Amino acid sequence: MERQLHTTHNKTETEHLGKEFASRLVPGDIIALYGDLGAGKTEFVRGVCDYFRVGEIVSSPTFTIINSYIGVLPNEEEVRIYHLDLYRINSTRELEEIGFEECMAADDAIKLIEWADKAQTAIPAARYSIIFHLDDKEEDTRHIEIRRTEQHEVVEPIIISS
Ligand code: ADP
Ligand code: MG
């Protein structure tokens, strides 16, 4: 497992980190985002979408659960980007109902999952996990860990406690 730790001091820095991170992504990649409400997951996704030149403003798809965008790769080809927010998901049955498994299996799409802890074992191990922590003292400081795991690795459940 590869790990990187970053610290940001405002939302623009978090968005910028997302944009910089996105340059390593390829179609098929899964990005699981962990962290409390207001931790900065959506700001990070905004940066990823900016890298792929997604035109629409990204907001958390809390009510729709899955948003779908068309982005542009560096080679000018289009790429489908799914942005999921599992905040309101409370059971495996609900995950099935939204077509979670089919979404993960979309090999030509980039999948970004907010509140990924709601789906733990349903997310393939070959993925990026981005873990957002609020700072104990500084209101606008976030500690953001980027992990990369491969298919054969066992991914420990990630539990957010702030
Ligand atoms: P989440 O999707 O994790 O619930 P959002 O990205 O929607 O969180 O919101 C993060 C909130 O925290 C925004 O209101 C933003 O202005 C604020 N904020 C303050 N500092 C930061 C930071 N370093 N990174 C990201 N957001 C920050
Ligand atoms: Mg959000």
Describe the structure using short key phrases:
30% strand, binds magnesium ion, binds adenosine-5'-diphosphate, alpha/beta, Rossmann fold, 7 strands, 162 residues, 7-stranded mixed sheet
Protein architecture, described:
This protein is of the alpha/beta class. It has one domain: 3-Layer(aba) Sandwich (Rossmann fold). Helices cover 21% and strands 30% of the residues. The chain is built from 4 helices and 7 strands, in the order βαβαββααβββ. The protein has helices at 11-22, 41-51, 92-97, 100-104, and strands spanning 2-8, 30-34, 66-72, 78-85, 109-114, 127-134, 142-149. Strands 1-7-6-2-5-4-3 form a 7-stranded mixed beta sheet, with helices on one face. Strand 6 and strand 7 (142-149) form a beta hairpin. Helix 1 crosses helix 2. 33% of the residues are buried. Bound molecules: adenosine-5'-diphosphate and magnesium ion (MG). Adenosine-5'-diphosphate (ADP) is lined by residues 8-11, 13-14, 35, 37-43, 60, 114, 140, 142. Adenosine-5'-diphosphate is lined by residues 8-11, 13-14, 35, 37-43, 60, 114, 140, 142.
